[in-house]
Specification:
By secondary structure, the protein is mainly α. It is 80% helix and 2% strand. A two-stranded antiparallel sheet has the order 1-2. The radius of gyration is 20 Å and the shape is globular.
Amino acid sequence: MSAGKGDRKATLDAASWLFNVVTSVGIIIVNKSLMATHGFSFATTLTGLHFATTTLLTLVLKWLGYIQPSQLPLPELLKFVLFANFSIVGMNVSLMWNSVGFYQIAKLTMIPVSCFLEVVLDKVRYSRDTKLSITLVLLGVAVCTVTDVSVNAKGFIAASVAVWSTALQQYYVHHLQRKYSLSSFNLLGHTAPVQAASLLILGPFVDFWLTSKTVYAYDYHFVSVSLILLSCTIAVGTNLSQFICIGRFTAVSFQVLGHMKTILVLILGFIFFGKEGLNHQVVLGMFIAIMGMVWYGNASSKPGGKERRSAPSKSQKKGTVSESSEVDDKV
């Protein structure tokens, strides 16, 4: 890779990551206000509205010619949507049935699960330093966020479904982009309509099961509707940035970098809300996690830090490898 192309890739990587951080933190703030302050607790239906808005954007971009026609086999599409919807529902149920501590522990296990999927499905091999750096990130985030840890049988099952479906969904984003030479917009154009339809149909029933309230009986008013529209608008960026980042970084790197958002949320909470919640444990956890992330970046980028064990076939050399580079250039 030439120096100019390397610099361009680094710039695009940084911009993609910043885009993901800004939209992810923004939607957390808006949704917290919508749910905690205004009582709109219908998370699954809201996610359906997010994907409906994303679908509208992809249709407009197709009409304007910014998204070119592409193919994604129906079985692959349905498999992805199944994992994605189980991830959304599983996370909501896990948060409801588990303590905050166990919910955070479950989220942390997505990194080793994602590593397992890459080792088994992509024949990826990690160096000792890469493995140790991931462990350090997990330790730091755990020290920051985990307080009480209590678990019950149904909560454990919900957390397991959430973790495995989320890891599979993130793995398949990278896999489908690479295999079918799809840009982030192309893949989102295929998946968003199906996710929107399925979640808007199932969402009200799932939300009623979780909250014993119906979304149709909610007292909609100007502020809550405005926040719903703002949440949907930001969600378009969140959905797109997730596809862009996983397409560029792989699911494991996305998970490692994703924990930086946890650290940033804690720091922003300190800046905007004072010293409440910031103690020696949180500061120590932040320091450990950041050191782990820096170490992971260096370790995984070195020769042998993270590589495929089996040489690609001739067809892969001609197709899949070049397609992956094309996707990076398109994003």
